[in-house]
């Protein structure tokens, strides 16, 4: 976690090699990311970006693009949709999976922010990734939808390594390790309890958010 502009999304972009670091290096099991094939990295990482992409494609294609090799595998797509659960969104569409989404075409059907996110999560489910990253959207989701998304994310991430970026302490506190970022660097790191005991920035922000609800 960290304040706006602290560098959270940047770390995700570095991990997925959308950027390469100017200084230093990122290693996985001792191997520099730069020495790995980008396709191999992408095959093992499922990422749901904060500004996830709203493709002007059909609902089926919007999910299928999560795994290009299996983009026509309807069974896999339906399975991913059931788990996200984008199927609830798709059931309401006039043409089901063949409905054109987005506003680019006049017959296209635009979805709400939360509905788009379910589709984005289904896309991530298409991959059987070892590392799952969720960069939580800052807006668009109401409290209930956000709680739902988080519980789906938890099931998506079970038995895998997961990174979640969130401004909500109810979400963040469940992590095993919480690095607090500031100005592009890790300021403090630990479990929720450890960070509270430290009485540093995390504790300060936690108190601030808690006070707002009192
Ligand atoms: N390619 C780049 N080179 C240098 N700085 C950049 C680059 N891209 C973004 N930045 C800057 O890096 C900082 C961190 O941005 P980042 O998107 O990682 O923040 P964030 O922690 O995800 O914030 P938020 O909570 O608002 O999503 C910002 O000040 C941004 O303007
Ligand atoms: Mg961000």
Could you characterize the architecture of this molecule?
- Helix 4 crosses helix 6 (113-125), helix 6 (113-125) runs parallel beside helix 7 (143-157) and helix 9 crosses helix 10 (201-213).
- This protein has a single domain (8-175), classed as 3-Layer(aba) Sandwich (Rossmann fold).
- The mean pLDDT is 87.
- With 214 residues, it is α/β, with parallel strands linked by helices.
- A hairpin with a 2-residue loop joins strand 6 (178-182) and strand 7.
- 41% of the residues lie in helices and 14% in strands.
- The structure holds adenosine-5'-triphosphate (ATP) and magnesium ion.
- Residues 2, 4-10, 50 line the site of adenosine-5'-triphosphate.
Task: Give keywords.
214 residues; alpha/beta; Rossmann fold; two-stranded antiparallel sheet; 10 helices; binds magnesium ion
Helix and strand arrangement:
Blueprint: H1 8-15, E1 27-28, E2 31-32, H2 38-44, E3 45-48, H3 59-64, H4 74-83, H5 87-91, H6 113-125, E4 131-135, H7 143-157, E5 161-165, H8 169-172, E6 178-182, E7 185-190, H9 192-198, H10 201-213
Parallel strand pairs: 3-4, 4-5
Antiparallel strand pairs: 1-2, 6-7
Helix pairs in contact: 4-6, 6-7, 9-10
Bound molecules: adenosine-5'-triphosphate (ATP) and magnesium ion (MG).
Adenosine-5'-triphosphate binds next to helix 1.
